[in-house]
Amino acid sequence: MKQINTIFLIDDDTLTNYLNQTIIRRVGYSKEIQAFDKPVFALSALQQITGSDDAPFPEMILLDVNMPNMNGWDFLEEYEKLPVQVIAKTKVYIVSSSINDRDIEKSKSYKTVSGFISKPLDAQKMNEILKPQGE
Known about the structure:
By secondary structure, the chain is an alpha/beta fold. The chain has one domain: Response regulator (Rossmann fold, 3-Layer(aba) Sandwich), CATH 3.40.50.2300. 40% of the residues lie in helices and 22% in strands. The chain contains six helices and five strands; from the N terminus they run E-H-E-H-E-H-H-E-H-E-H. The chain has helices at residues 14-27, 39-50, 72-79, 84-87, 101-108, 123-130; strands at residues 4-10, 30-36, 60-63, 91-96, 113-118. Strands 2-1-3-4-5 form a five-stranded parallel β-sheet, with helices on both faces.
């Protein structure tokens, strides 16, 4: 199983963030997990990391869509303004309770989005996205 250094969880529901952290830690998917209940805080952290030589950029971002103030789409619009050489190292997955086909199609319109995962996140879904290409 592939382990990633850093995962950012972005979901306005703190319980969902807690449950996702528990799943990720229990199975050992990541060394570091940072959870954000406001996308603007995650964006700020990413901007700070971009300007730093010390802090590693997350290898994966699990992003909810339906959030107040700044939703997942708003976050992606700002995220894609970060330097390409930085964001190219990160896989972004939409993790949403939405089963709306328009949301799934919209997620495909963002070059930085690697996939769409239906909530709830579980070990099987994490295994799927961490599976090496071609398996």
